[in-house]
Specification:
- The protein is mainly α and 282 residues long.
- Helix content is 67%, strand content 2%.
- The chain is built from eleven helices and two strands; from the N terminus they run αααααβααβαααα.
- The chain has a two-stranded antiparallel sheet with strand order 1-2.
- α2 runs parallel beside α4, α6 runs antiparallel to α7 and α8 crosses α9.
- The chain is globular, with a radius of gyration of 20 Å.
């Protein structure tokens, strides 16, 4: 009897993950029907659910290995397949092989990014992401489509631009460029009253032109990775940009979270028993 009680899955966090998965699937269907604005918005909605499921799981103490794996699979659909297909249907169909190759580069980059992230748990520097996170890459591509629709831009007329940006987003995901994770921000601490006014101002700015503002923000974030990397090293090497750089997780300065050589063996043993957590939680 007690054994049967332990079986099953937690409803609330997995329900949120399912909602994110549905949003990604809806984005693909909407793009196939020519509703590209709805498709782009659906990807941003998937980002919201992806950010909620992990936090709800921690708040309610309902984390599970099943939930972590399910979230990773949902991320592949919502932030891997969906943005690539939306971009392809919007502006890459007339490019032939070049079009679907650019879309595939993005899909492959998202798959490799998620796989690498899951294998680096426990040894990565929590302050930075190694490579552009898949939700941010999806927001970059979806924001491009959303801006194009809002300003009556025919994606097929700018197919090469769409291909370059889509392929570049895929390559940034598998790069060694370091991106701030903003985990050092104390979200539970107090802020001055003016901080609330700034937050209200941000909401107003986003509401005036959501597609343009969101695309601009995520484009700046995508550029911040190479800038942070080139500013952090004296001499840029190939492994600083791409390649096997897992041990330091692109942490080019000495970090208090960096694992020393005598502890690497111990860390690898702990990593085998460490439960995977979704990318949005890290």
């Amino acid at each position: 009897m007690s054994e049967s009680k332990r079986k099953g899955i937690y409803l609330l966090p997995n329900l949120l993950t399912t909602a994110g998965l549905f949003s990604g699937f809806y984005a693909v269907v909407a793009s196939m029907n020519g509703r590209f604005e709805a498709a782009a918005v659906a990807i941003f909605v998937a980002m919201i659910f992806d950010g909620l499921d992990g936090r709800v799981a921690r708040m309610t103490n309902t984390q599970s290995e099943f939930g972590a794996e399910y979230d990773s699979m949902a991320d592949m659909v919502s932030f891997g397949m969906a943005p690539a297909l939306v971009a392809y249907n919007w502006g890459l169909t007339d490019l032939g092989k070049v079009g679907w190759l650019a879309a595939f580069i993005y899909v492959a980059g998202a798959a490799l990014r998620l796989a690498r992230f899951n294998t680096q748990l426990g040894v990565a520097d929590k302050r930075f992401f190694q490579g552009l996170a898949s939700p941010a890459a999806a927001a970059l591509v979806a924001g491009m489509v959303w801006v194009g629709v809002d300003y009556d831009v025919d994606g097929k007329e700018f197919g090469l631009v769409v291909a370059v940006l889509t392929g570049l987003a895929g390559l940034l995901m598998v790069s060694n460029f370091k991106y701030n994770s903003f985990k050092e921000v104390d979200w539970h601490g107090k802020v001055p009253f003016v901080g609330l006014l700034i937050v209200m101002l941000v909401f107003i700015i986003v509401a005036t032109a959501p597609s343009l503002v969101l695309f601009f923000v995520f484009a700046l974030y995508a550029l911040a990775g190479p800038i942070n990397t080139f500013r952090s090293v004296d001499k840029v090497r190939l492994e600083d940009v791409v390649g096997d750089h897992e041990e330091s997780d692109c942490d080019f300065a000495v970090s208090p979270n960096k694992v020393s050589e005598p502890e690497q063996e111990k860390t690898s043993e702990q990593k085998q028993t460490h439960k995977k957590t979704p990318e949005s939680e890290q």
